[in-house]
Amino acid sequence: MPRLILLRHGQSQWNLENRFTGWVDVDLTAEGEAQARRGGEQIAAAGFHPDVMFTSVLTRAKRTGALALDSAGLKDVPVVEDWRLNERHYGGLTGLDKAETAALHGDDQVKIWRRSYDVPPPPLAPGGEFDFAHDPRYAGQHIPDTESLKTTLDRVLPYWNDAIAPRLKAGDDVLIAAHGNSLRAIVKHLFNVPDDQIVGVEIPTGNPLEIDLDANLTPVAARYLDADRAQPLPPLPEA
């Protein structure tokens, strides 16, 4: 039975500053580094030895995965980076202070942009500070100017099917170090979470979520390794 661990990156500098981050490549805070290391200790305590780690191309996810593996004493785990595991693109909200944005547009509207399934924020205007069109990491790719969770899932799911699922079906244990929304997209897919209920799914930073899968990659058990920082999980799909 394959095991999967989803690890959201530790606290980033813009998490600390309460800013919409999305694809901006900010680093971890000292607390974020500590969260990543604690996550690695919990992974080791759970006896989890991944055969491969998948991560995004963003520093906060890559460093979280690397720190966790190091803390767990896991050496020589192959690492595969792909932009399709990036955080969702926050469009025109990128870089803005969340509290100031709520004061300007209202709490309800900001909640819809942040937590709804299929309503994206306003698009990012081209040519600005956070225009990623010329970033070499995305050369030859279609770069979105905004994303909802739905369109994030639209890019994550093909990568899941093409790259991650085959490793799990082959019996490999897999660690994914990524972001709140790319991991929520995977949880929505695995647990068949209804569109109107995914708003209630939150994945805490640096807390490994272990999911045991059957041969069809249907979850049969799931738990956060740090129970004190756990968030409610969706019900397991019916067999």
UniProtKB/TrEMBL annotation:
Pathway: Carbohydrate degradation; glycolysis; pyruvate from D-glyceraldehyde 3-phosphate: step 3/5. The record marks 179 as: Transition state stabilizer. One of its GO terms (biological process) is gluconeogenesis. Its EC number is 5.4.2.11. CDD domains: HP_PGM_like. One of its GO terms (molecular function) is phosphoglycerate mutase activity. It catalyses: (2R)-2-phosphoglycerate = (2R)-3-phosphoglycerate. Keywords: Gluconeogenesis, Glycolysis, Isomerase. The keyword DNA damage does not apply. It comes from the Bacteria. Substrate binds at residues 8-15, 21-22, 60, 87-90, 98, 114-115, 180-181. Pfam families: His_Phos_1. InterPro entries: His_Pase_superF_clade-1, His_PPase_superfam, PG/BPGM_mutase_AS, Phosphogly_mut1. The active site is at 9 (tele-phosphohistidine intermediate), 87 (proton donor/acceptor). Belongs to the phosphoglycerate mutase family. BPG-dependent PGAM subfamily. Homodimer. This is 2,3-bisphosphoglycerate-dependent phosphoglycerate mutase. The gene is gpmA.
